[in-house]
Structure formats: structure tokens, C-alpha cells
Known about the structure:
The structure is a homohexamer.
Chain A: E1 4-8, H1 13-23, E2 30-34, E3 40-44, E4 52-56, H2 63-79, E5 84-89, H3 108-118, E6 123-127, E7 142-145, H4 148-157, E8 163-167, H5 173-183, E9 186-193, E10 202-206, E11 213-221, H6 225-236, E12 241-249, H7 255-261, E13 266-270, E14 284-287, H8 290-302, H9 313-320
Amino acid sequence: MAGLKIFSGNANRPLAEDVCRCIGVPLGKALVGRFKNGETRVRIEEHVRGADVFVIQPTSSPSDHHVMELLIMSDALRRASADRITAVIPYYGYAKQEKKSAGREPITAKLVANLITTAGVDRVVALDLHAPAIQGFFDIPVDNLTAIPFLADLLVKEGIEDVVAVSPDVGGVARANDFRYRINAELAVIAKRRPKPDEAEALEMVGQVDGKCAVIVDDMISTGGTLEVAANLLHERGARAVYAYAVHPVFAGNAFELIERSFLDRVVVTNTVTVPPETRDNKIQVVNIGWLIAEAIQRIHEGRSISAMFETRRFQQELLI
Amino acid sequence: MAGLKIFSGNANRPLAEDVCRCIGVPLGKALVGRFKNGETRVRIEEHVRGADVFVIQPTSSPSDHHVMELLIMSDALRRASADRITAVIPYYGYAKQEKKSAGREPITAKLVANLITTAGVDRVVALDLHAPAIQGFFDIPVDNLTAIPFLADLLVKEGIEDVVAVSPDVGGVARANDFRYRINAELAVIAKRRPKPDEAEALEMVGQVDGKCAVIVDDMISTGGTLEVAANLLHERGARAVYAYAVHPVFAGNAFELIERSFLDRVVVTNTVTVPPETRDNKIQVVNIGWLIAEAIQRIHEGRSISAMFETRRFQQELLI
Amino acid sequence: MAGLKIFSGNANRPLAEDVCRCIGVPLGKALVGRFKNGETRVRIEEHVRGADVFVIQPTSSPSDHHVMELLIMSDALRRASADRITAVIPYYGYAKQEKKSAGREPITAKLVANLITTAGVDRVVALDLHAPAIQGFFDIPVDNLTAIPFLADLLVKEGIEDVVAVSPDVGGVARANDFRYRINAELAVIAKRRPKPDEAEALEMVGQVDGKCAVIVDDMISTGGTLEVAANLLHERGARAVYAYAVHPVFAGNAFELIERSFLDRVVVTNTVTVPPETRDNKIQVVNIGWLIAEAIQRIHEGRSISAMFETRRFQQELLI
Amino acid sequence: MAGLKIFSGNANRPLAEDVCRCIGVPLGKALVGRFKNGETRVRIEEHVRGADVFVIQPTSSPSDHHVMELLIMSDALRRASADRITAVIPYYGYAKQEKKSAGREPITAKLVANLITTAGVDRVVALDLHAPAIQGFFDIPVDNLTAIPFLADLLVKEGIEDVVAVSPDVGGVARANDFRYRINAELAVIAKRRPKPDEAEALEMVGQVDGKCAVIVDDMISTGGTLEVAANLLHERGARAVYAYAVHPVFAGNAFELIERSFLDRVVVTNTVTVPPETRDNKIQVVNIGWLIAEAIQRIHEGRSISAMFETRRFQQELLI
Amino acid sequence: MAGLKIFSGNANRPLAEDVCRCIGVPLGKALVGRFKNGETRVRIEEHVRGADVFVIQPTSSPSDHHVMELLIMSDALRRASADRITAVIPYYGYAKQEKKSAGREPITAKLVANLITTAGVDRVVALDLHAPAIQGFFDIPVDNLTAIPFLADLLVKEGIEDVVAVSPDVGGVARANDFRYRINAELAVIAKRRPKPDEAEALEMVGQVDGKCAVIVDDMISTGGTLEVAANLLHERGARAVYAYAVHPVFAGNAFELIERSFLDRVVVTNTVTVPPETRDNKIQVVNIGWLIAEAIQRIHEGRSISAMFETRRFQQELLI
Amino acid sequence: MAGLKIFSGNANRPLAEDVCRCIGVPLGKALVGRFKNGETRVRIEEHVRGADVFVIQPTSSPSDHHVMELLIMSDALRRASADRITAVIPYYGYAKQEKKSAGREPITAKLVANLITTAGVDRVVALDLHAPAIQGFFDIPVDNLTAIPFLADLLVKEGIEDVVAVSPDVGGVARANDFRYRINAELAVIAKRRPKPDEAEALEMVGQVDGKCAVIVDDMISTGGTLEVAANLLHERGARAVYAYAVHPVFAGNAFELIERSFLDRVVVTNTVTVPPETRDNKIQVVNIGWLIAEAIQRIHEGRSISAMFETRRFQQELLI
Lengths: 321, 321, 321, 321, 321, 321
């Protein structure tokens, strides 16, 4: 396998730079901008013939633009005879459109998987995909990394007692359970309910949080609405503290404002999506997972096992020291 | 669109016959057997050139054989110039292999989707897919029917009070919540937990069932092991009755025996998978959903909406009367 | 063939409405908007099973978003079992990225063609593609309509004498010659030249415009920069009037301002791309080509010839009366 | 090319072990079993990222299951980023379904070729394919090895005189002629005939076997029925001994019993398909061709010529010594 | 299905005209010629949008040119929105390259099948394919017609006695046996043999022809060399008359001369390939099978069974009267 | 990457030999001929397993045959397990069929691109493609080399003054302008015009050539008709000399005769297409570009940049010395 080259689109250049720093290679030179008519413009500005190329691009908002940047970069790299193109997509946009929730809806998460393959990508690295089945949307190899053990470890290190891991909806219970399994906490689930046919839908919680430290576990924080409502409910049910641990800081709409004024005491997220520095207030803590992606890229480039990364706690301990 | 023809593999011929009876067409003539060397032998024994063909075949156990029967029938139909081939797969085998739960595992549910497409199938009709994202494994249209509203209605008609819908694991909470949403019941969740790093994994229940009628909701009953353990736990926590409502009666291994000797008071399933008549004892009740598949086939053949089938309760009431 | 249905993305809804008005069908109901996280949201809100569906969507700025809207709508329509999906793309964005002008560039116009095919589109209707070879980027049928004869007729009707058709660059000479061929005008070509190796590149004109009415012919007006410079040169060379006839009003950047302050006396464009009404000042005249697209859609739906549309002048005369 | 790894499905593990012994590598660790619901379960239990992987799996009875095992193993290996996957299929099941012998039949041998390609296999090694054109069913490279020269050599070494090679049907004459060409024997052909329109079909032999040693040559022994009937006819026509030399010991139904009670004096087969040890009676002799497959695997792995293996007699002599 | 249209390439226009005459439709207008630089030039000169189009083109010599004509016509028809394109290939060139007879050879018959599919052909009609497995080279439907029963009937009508059907090589025994099965004749096989390792290869015949009428049966007559040598051998072995019945009159090289001077008394072929009228001397009899192709086209167009055509003798009798 | 191997079809073997001479490797051994029935026959006669193979084959006249030779060679190489197949197509036939100039025409240049990909070619090297968008017809990497700078340099070295670069038609102005840009010449364009609707089409020239040296620049000389007419016009307008510089010497029909008797003083072409030695008269000068192709092949084989070849004048100067 020829030399390793890492390129970045515009979605999260600081993360790409951090990954390069960890590996000890310079970020590949590429013009990724716009023509005056608004069309995305790409020119790879260094030699890639025969190289093992990684493109780091979360498909965060504006998703359509970031998806297209990734596709156009892949097209340029393929036509420039890169030997292998790996799309590193730390946050996979459109992940919630992974099924039809009603008739005549698209399955955009699958469509995007097809588009990525069509553009000439040979393999994908993702991180905490919203639904694990998205991995199966691809026929090319996908390595789905996870930051959940790392986030759980961070919580453990604080030595907090009486923790309850809370799934903010019925679709995320497996993730919350995985989190609490690692830290030996209780579990609670928030679910929608309609008391009577004519009455309005209401939230209900299954499980106990009274006097405990409630930790909402989710893969992403989008508008913050779900989080705010969950925090209210947890506060109302007597939680002595309300935390949220999530991987992807999507922070759409007025999420910062909602979080600020909510009963949330702390929000911990990773940097898969760019968060403006000024918004990192006391409540929001952003932890860096560039080292995790760097490790995966090196292992893929050298043909070493990715699954071994997650088999022992030793791995993270070594890396974290 | 030319004439409607319905064929059946060997996986569930009684269901296919029932569907034909509902629609009022004869089951298509086809030899689907085995050569003496054990290879699957197919010959379509009536004219299908230009026809709108449906093949009814749940990919139940022996799954490999039933999958291959479906593929070989499709190959024969395509080469015989059928205009359109719809695979009707009431139970989609390998559905639990829809993600990698560890490194170096297959995603067999996706592989089978690819095989079906490769064999020339133009569209798929499924029923209560284990994971809704499986729909996205296909690029051809998939209609994912559901028997959950129908099963919920059956329970409602009995007028039982104080019902709690129980998800037997953390992955099925959305399904249990959908069920209880329709009948205004409580929710409970059974989850695995490890108290301390060195202790054994144990089951835990979130929610209350004391003195109530606990209804375990699941998409399929496989070995019955999950069900038996859940029933024990529910009994122990004071449930006054324990029911199970599930769509697919896989009944692998000694499932019948487990159910018989368990704390389960009643098990309700549909006939997507063949259940031997002698095993339909007092506890196990099999309800026929041939009418649901028949309705879907007619709508597809005539170009009418499938989603309309599930938009109003009226539909089922009309059909059930 | 089942019923005709026409849907529109958000790129040029007024054009789609005009097309529907010409044909006498209502515009199909579809939600085409955005989720709060900025992702494109699509739901087709009427029955399309078995229908002959046309989606009208120029891939104008913001191109990435409009391309993705088109792809996601196609995905939804395919999964909803539309019988045939025709993408009507009056302006094909990224058309100038149809070749590599340097090493390691993408060919985005081809990439987009592949994406459209991947999303399930069965055929394409375009209008005055920037390069005719883009038609060959698709393996599905493409009907490339043209508004050039229509624009030429408009000029003829004014009875202006001594017209010179001017190609503003060396790549568009065939188009300018086609235009002038229809109206029996002279031809001129503007070309870049570098007098000596160390001197700056300069514009040069081949042909005579002194005392004549110079009509710049182009497929699109993008930033207006080319047009402004060309108008200056034509004015300087003694043209008594300077017009521009172009199909696609891309009008990127400060195009309106450039046009306003230029030597251009008149700019005639069609409505393939939305032009804000307030910008339609005295200089800029927008002519409607909805009737042309409507005619093509009807012919495709009914299986009648498209090429016949352009074989006689009679066609346009009939339609224009 | 990275390291060589060899895995085996359950169809013929002893052969795979023998191949590994010849090459001097351990058989790759993989779980290839069944879930309790009967579905095939695969987990590759060693690192394969970047490896040159061979999967040895004849698709013998139960064919559907063995085909699916091969496909699922390939899916797992592909998703685990094996660099190249070669399916080694010593006996290619469904090979007799390589054409339509009547209308509306499948061509299952082609379907299986498509399935293998769909599952991600990069190349195939086969042995004495029933019809050589099956090689063309694949677009990936296929190396079709042959054991016929080896079997012919075995016969030559015995020094038997007056041999007649007999094709048991009209489709296998080329194979029988190839065999006798190598050993300078006579040729005879057994063919079906219908004396008069109303009379029953009968067997007829073209050629002379009186007083000679008749050797029936075939690619496989399936139910043994063809063989028994042929042996009867040869005995009846005066053959002094009746042998059968065939590559694939399918031995379906009561083949052993038929052979035992037939006029056959000796049956020589290879071990492409597992033969239960207890059935290897005096009549049936199983010769090992593991060395042949091992040689092919090594040559493919090292990029050396396969066709050179069969160009000279020297190859086999060296290997046999 | 829209209207039926039949077009012809330049390979056998008289046959196409005869087919049109049988069906009662005019031959479609199309320019199929050459540009001055020798490239093939195609323009379809009548409306085909939505039509059910058949292109009649045997890929006879010059094969490369006739294959490309077929592909280019298909490309034009697909881009012109024909609804369905059926390639009618009465003689399938390159059919003898259907397997690798040595290492590093192409399988051109498969390559051509792939090219035909790539060019947009939806289905194929062939006639007496050299190897039936070629049908499996396609994934699109193939109807493989046969003229063998028709040729056999012609012989029967002559009332000749003591007929022996002779296969001129070991690969064609099944075809010769099929022929003789229909007419209750004897069978003989001509095969190559090498007496001793150092001696030259020689022809040998298995079966008896002394005093009989020997009828060589083959699918095609290529250079006539095989035929000449076979006729010599049959004459030498005492045949009282030597005939040849073959479907495809390829007649390459100096085939006419070889036949003229050979011991052949009569050669009967069909008109799948154009035979120059002046070469139809007393020995060579060309029988028209346009009616057979016409019948197949009509059945395909109307969605009626093709296999029914060959199920009874009645079919041909009706058609022949 | 394994060893480099270069093979040649029959279209331009001298060029292939020259390329091999430049690189210092022998031309690969392969039988590329015809069977007696006129079908193309290919056998690769040396080991290619794992090799990096280049096939040199302009698809010049007879184009269909040369295209098929290329496809069949690729099929053989792929099946023989070549690691990578690069088609080197110095002249790309059918390049002028790159768009539909009227309804119901093929886009043969795209069809051929699809055929090449279908045959298993992994990448393409071309030279001065007639339309640059043809590069986008492929999804595999294409390196489009150019001989235009080299031809311009040749002219510069002669020190001729007052040069005008003439585009012989409106489609080639960009190429002529590129040529003159490098040598600082004037530009002129020849275009068709129809004075009045009823009058005949006539040629017109835009630009001045009086007393100058007019150099017609084109990518290919086909029938020579365009060239003859252009030379007449230039002579008539007072050019003191008329030259033609073109890359591809197609020389169809009686091109030599037309050139001989025309006003052309000199014609300079490359050897991408074979020109019979006897036709290289005083007027026609053939310059060798084998070194250019050799350089590209070496760079591709070694993974070095192709675009770097054209970035500086230094490259050619070094090579030419």
C-alpha cells in the first residue's frame, strides 16, 4: 500500500487537523471552496496517484452541501487515480431518515450510502451511527467506531454515586443500557403516551430517579428540544442532578439557548461536529475524539485490526495516559 | 398490467392458499421440489409471460433452503419473461443479523436483500420486519406491512384492565410502546445488567407490573428462551397474568416445551410461519393474517395505495367484520 | 401508462406551476422542506403508485441543496412505487464542470448524472445543456430541449438590421453560429490572447461590429463578468447597440449591478432559473418557456416524438399564437 | 499481496485441512455453525484485514445450505476488509442446471454464479466443472482445474490392456474422449433411442466392448442410476471388466447400494465431496486431490501461472513422486 | 404494450424482410451505414418512443462489425425511448468461444452477451445456440428457438431408409442424437484419436454406416473442413450416401469449393445467415425459417408462450401447410 | 505493483513497438488474429497473473474491428488475472458521435466507453480526445494526454512570422486558440452561413489572413474534405502559405489525393494512427509521439503524476533533446 494522505472538506477542518497531528502527517492540500455561482469547487493540489487516501468530512449542517463536498472530492480523487479512498464520516447526517415512518417517505440515509458508493468511495469509517443497521446500507466495508465507552469512562472517573442512565426516547434504550452497563447504574426510559384517544400525547417515565443523578444518554443533540423536555421531567421527578452525555453536538436551531435555560447541569459532547468556541459555556463540555479517529486511520492504513481497539479497556487507558 | 399470478414456495403453502382464497384466484402451478441429489428443483408449470407475479415465501427455517427456493423461483420467472416479480416474504429470516454486533461478522440480512435483488425480484412485501431499517437494505420498493394494530385490537376486544406492555429487551421498546400506545396501557422494560465487574449478568425490570396483566410484546418468538425468562421475572414481580403477543411464530428448538412449562398464560401469534396443528394447544393461539397479505397484493396489482391500509382503523374493522 | 403527475422541488416552483397550468393538471402535493437540523425533508403527499411522475427542478444555486432535493424526491417516489420518474432539469447546474481543465479536478457534471441515475430516475428532460456531450453522461434517455430558436425568433420579430452574433468566448462559437444561422447575421468571436510570454492576457475580437447591433449569445449568464467585459469591448469596437440573449439567468454574485452599469442595452433570458421580480428592470427581459417544457412532458407521457417539436418552425408559431 | 489465509465452510473440512497441510499453513479460525433457529451463523475469528483469503467449500448436498454458508462467509470477510476473496469450490453444485431443458426453468448454475459475485467473491477456483461454459457464467476470473489427467495416469499405471473409454450419455463424449486420448483406448458411447414413436425409450451403445475392459468416464456419480444401467449394458455386451472413473463422489440417494449390487468391478473417485469412511468399500476407491488444490492456491497467491500446471506431464509426475 | 416495430441491421436484411412479410408489418426505417471514415452510422428514421422494438441481426461475418451495428442500433433505440428492445440474433457469432480451451483465452461469447446487455437490450431471441449454456450468459430473458425438429421433418418426408445420424465431433453428439431420436435412425460419432504418443492425431468413427445413408448433423457449417473430412471418412466406411443437415450456413473461407468437391451428396441449411444466391448450387439447399422467427416475435409481442411452439408437432405442421 | 507488460492489438503495432523501445521492455507476446470464419481470435501467450498490463490500440478504421479486438484482449487479460488493465487508446474512434445531433441517434462515443468498462478495463490513456467531455463518459480514471504543445513547439522552432491559427469550423475554436496562445499568433474562424432562407449554405471566414501564414489547427484529418475547402478559402483570402497541424491522421477515403491537389503547402500529423509509409510525401510530415505515450505509461506504472508532464515546458525540452 502506497503512502497515507489525509484530506478534509469544510465540515470540520479543526478535527481533521487534530487527526493529522496525532498521526504526524500534514493535512493534504486541496482547494475545497465555491465558484462564484455557488457551486462547490474542488481541486486536489497534491499528487495522489496510488495513494491510500482518507477524506474527513462529517455530513453535518448544511448537510446537502457537506455531502456533495464529500462526493465531489471523492470523484476528483478517483479520477486522479488514488489507490483507495476511505470516507471518514464522524457524524453521519440524515441518519434519522433510516426508515420510512410513513408511506411515501425517502430513506435518505440509504440514498446517501448509495451516493457515496457511486462517487467511488472504497470504504467508510463512521462513529456511533444513529442506527447500527446503517452499516448494512453499504456493501463496501464500514468501520463503526464508538465513543460511548470513552464517555462512560469520563463519568466513572468523577466518582459520582447513584447514577441513573436515562434514555430520552424508546428508540435509544439499547444505547443507554450499554452506557449504564459499563458504569453499573440504574436505567430509566422516557416514552410518549396518549392517555385516552381524544387526549393529547404526554411524556411518561418508566424507572426511578428521585434523589439520584440522572444522566441522559443519546447519540446526538439536535435541536435540544428532546433534551429540555427530558430534563424538565427528570427534575420534576426529583433528580438531584441532570446531565446529558451525547456523541454528536449537532446543536440545531436555538439549542444553546434551550440548554442554557434548562434544568440541565452539564452537557458532555465530542467534537465530531464543529462547535463554535464561544458557545462552549460552563454547561457544555466538548471532549476531543481526534485520537480515536487517528488510531483507526493508522490501523486501516497498516492493515491492523479495528475491532481489537474496542476489545479491552487497556486500549483507551494507554491512549488516555 | 397483465394478469395477476400467485406462486408459493414450500415454506408456507397453507398461507399462500389462504391468500389465493381471499383474492379469488387459483394458486399458480409450479413444481418446487428437490432433485435426488438434494438440489432444489423448480419448474413453473403455467404461462407467465407478461404476468404480474407474486411469490409467497417466508424465509423461515430451514432458512437457507427457503431463501434459495425463493431465488431460484425468481430466476425461473424472470427468464420466463414475467413482467414484474414481487417477493412476498411474511417472515424475513436472518432479520436479526442486520448489524455487526462484533468485528468480522456478516450482515446477513443485507446479503439476503442483495441476493433477492440479484435474482431479479422487482419489489418486496414484508410484514413487521425485525428492524425497520431492513427496508432500506433494498433499493427496490418494499412494503412493510404490520400486524401490530391487529394484535392490539384483539387484546382490546377482550376488555382486560390494568394492562402493562412489556418489552422483553432494550431493542424492542419502540414496538412495545407502539402497542401500548394503541391500547392505553403502561410500559415496562426488561434489561440486562451487570451489578459489579466480577458478578454475573442479571435481568432487571424497569416499570411496575404488580397486580397487573403483563403483556410481552415482540416481533417473533424464536427459541422461547427470552420469553420464559421474562415470564418468570414478571411472575416474580407480581403480575396477575402474563401474556405474549408476537407476530412471527418461529418456535425454534424446544420452544413449545418451554412455553408449556412457563408462567405464560397465553401466547398469541400470527401464521406468517407454519405452525404444526398439533402444537396449537390451549396456550398458543394462531390468528390468520392471510387477509392482510391478500389486501396488499390486490392493491399493488391494481396500483392502489398500501399506506392507506393503515391510516384508519376503519380498514381493519371492515375487513374483520 | 398510468396517470401523469408533476411535482416540484423548491428551485423554481413558479415555473412548475406554469407548466401545470399549460397542461391543465394540478401540481402534485409534496412536502419538500427542511428539518430543524437543516436536513432536507421530503414527503410525497399524494398517491403515486403506478403513476408517470415528472419532477421539475433546475439545479440552480444553492446547487448542492437543489441537487439533493431532486435526489431525495426521486428516492421517495421510487420507494412509493412510481412507475416511471422523469427528472425535468431546465437548468443543469455544475454543467461547466464537464471536463477536467487541470489534473486532479472532478467532473462534477458526470458525477451528478451518476447520482441522478443512482437515485432511481428513469429519464431526464434538460434544456440547452452547456455542453451537448452531457447528454452522453447518462445511459438513461435524455431529451435536451432548446430555447435558442425561440430566442432567435424573438429577435427576428423586432426587425433589427445589421446584426452580428457574438460568441463571448471560444467555447461558445457553435451556439452563436447556430443563432446567427437562423437570423442571417454576421459572426464575431471574442478570444483570450497573450501578446508575449511576459505580458498579461488580453481580450481580442475576431470579426467586425463597427456600426452594427452586436448580440452576445450564450447559454447562461453567471456572474455577468464575461458579459460586462464583452460589452465593453464591443462598445469600444464601435457597436451601435449591445444586446445579450442567453437561456439561463443564473445571475450569481453582483450580476445585476454589473449589467446595470455595463454598456449592455438589453438582456433577454428565459425563466429556467427563478429571477426575483424586483430585478427585472428595463434592461432585463425574462421570457417564459413553461409552454416548451409542458409540451415536452405531454409528448413524453403520451409517447409522441420530442424531436418533431423542433423539426419545423410551424411548431413554435402555433404555440406562440 | 498480504498474507495467505485459508478458511473452510462445513462442506468438506477434511479436504481443507489436507490443503492446509500441503501448503504448511494452519486452517483459519472461524465459527461456521447455526443459530438455534436454524440460521447459518458465521464469525471470522482471526484478523483478515488486508489478507489474501481462500474459502474452501464444495457446494455439495445440502447444496442450498452450503451455498449460503459460502455467501455468508464471503460477506463477513468482505466487511472485515479482506483484500481479496477466492472461493475454492472443488465441486460446483447445481452444475447440471446450466441450461433450460424446457420452458420456464431456472438456470440455477448461473444464478449461483451471480450470487457468489454479489457476495463479494473476487475470484473462483473450480475443478472439472460439469460444463466448461459455466466458467463464462462468471465475469470474475475462474480457474477450472481438472483431475482427469491424474485419473487417467492412475489407470495407465495399472498396465491394463484393451481398454474402452465409455461415455454413459451423449453429453459426456468429449470428456470420455479426452480421457481415452491420454491412454490410447477405444471409445464407446451410450445413447437413448426410441425405436418407434409408440415404443419405450431404450439404451443403445455405439462402439465395441466385447472382451475388453470398459471404463465409464464421468464428471460425477450422482444417484448411481446412470452408472448401474451403463454397467448392465456393458456387461451384457461382453465387457470382461467394468470400471468407473469419475471426479465428484456425489453419491446421492442409495448410490452405494446400487454400486454394490451392480456389475461394476471398481469405482475410482476423488475427495472433492466428503465420502463417509465406512462407505469406502472394496469397490470404491477415493483418491486425494488436496495436493492439486494446494498447488493452485499457492500459485494464485504468488501470482504464478495456473495453466502451466497442466501443460506438461512433468508437473504431476513430480508431485506424485 | 405499445406498437410492434421491427428493424434490421445489415447482416441479413432479406431474412428481416421475410419476417416482416409473415407478420404483415413494414420493416422499420433506419439508416444503418457507414461514415466516410469507416465508422458505423445509425439513425432511426421513424418514431419509436414507447414502442416494442425488435432488431434482427445475426452476428455473422464480419462479426465485429455486425455486433457493433447491433449495439449501436440498441443505443440509439434506448436513447430514443423505445419501451423494450429485443435483439433477434438468428446466428450468434463467437458462439464457439464459449469456454477457455487453454489458459489466457477470452470467453468472447460471454463478453458479447455482456456487451449486448450494456447497450440496453432487454431480451434476446436466438436460434440453435452452439452451446445451450450460452443462454445462461445472459441475465435478461433469452428465447432459444430451434430449427432441428423442422430439419428432421424435412428428412422424414423424403422417406429415406437406413439412416445413420453422424456427429462430426465429440461435442455435438447430443445434437445428433436429438435429431436421430426424432427420426428413429442409428447413431455414429467421429472422434479424434492419437494411436501412440509419437504418432499423429487421426480420425476414428464409432458406429456403423456401411450401406447406409449417413446424415451429418451439426449446428453450423463454418469452413467446411470438418464436413469434408467427415464425408471422406463416411464414404470410406461404405456409406451409400452422405448428407449434411445444419442450421447456420456460415460458409467461411472456401467452404463452397470444399463442399462441391467432397463426397457430400446434399447439404441442407437454413437462411439464418445470408447465402449468396449464386452459391445455391444443386448440392446446397437453403430452407427458409423466417416464419419461425416471425411466430416467435408475434408471441413475445402479445405475451403468449414461446415454449408452446415446440411442444407439439402440430405447430409446425400447421405452419408448413 | 507487479511487473509492467505492454500488449498491442493490430491497429498500430509500430507505435506499440516504439513505445516499448522507449521504455526498454519487450512487447508482450499475444496472438491477435482471426479465425477462418472471420471472428477475432486472441490468446495471450505469456504469463500475466498479477501484472500491470497496458494494451495499446487506437480504435481507428476499421473501428468496429479494432474496438472489438481491444475488448476481447481485455476479456482475456481479466480472466487471466491481470492485476490492472490500462487501455491506451491514442486515437479514440467514434469520438465525433459524442452527442445527438438529431433525434434517434446513438451516442456511440459513450457506448464505446461503456463497452470498454464492461470488458474489464481499469483505466484509460487517451490523446487529444475530440471533445474533452468524453473523459467524463468513463467512471474509471482517464488520462487525456495532448500533443498540441508539442506541435506548437515544432512550428515555433521554424521561426515563421505572421502566423494566423485557423479553426476550420465553429466547434474547434478552443483548440485553435489554445494553439495560437502558445505561439502568439492571430486567430481566424471558418463558419457555415446561409445568406437567405432559400440560398445554399456557404463558408465564411471571420478574421484576417491576407499575406500571412495560415495554419489550420484540428484534432484529426478525416476525409480531408474540410481541410481542402478551408485551404481554398484561405488561399482565396490571400494567405501567403497554408499549413495544417493535426494530431490524428485518420486519412479516410481519398484524403491523400485531396491533400495532394489542394492549396495546402504542408500537413503535420502524429503517428497515433498508422499511416502507410508510401503516403508520406513531401507535403505530409508524420512526427512520432511514442515517447509521450511511453512517458505516461511509466508514470502510471510507477504512481507518478501525469499532470506534471504538462505543467512545464521543461518536460518536453528534456525529452526532445
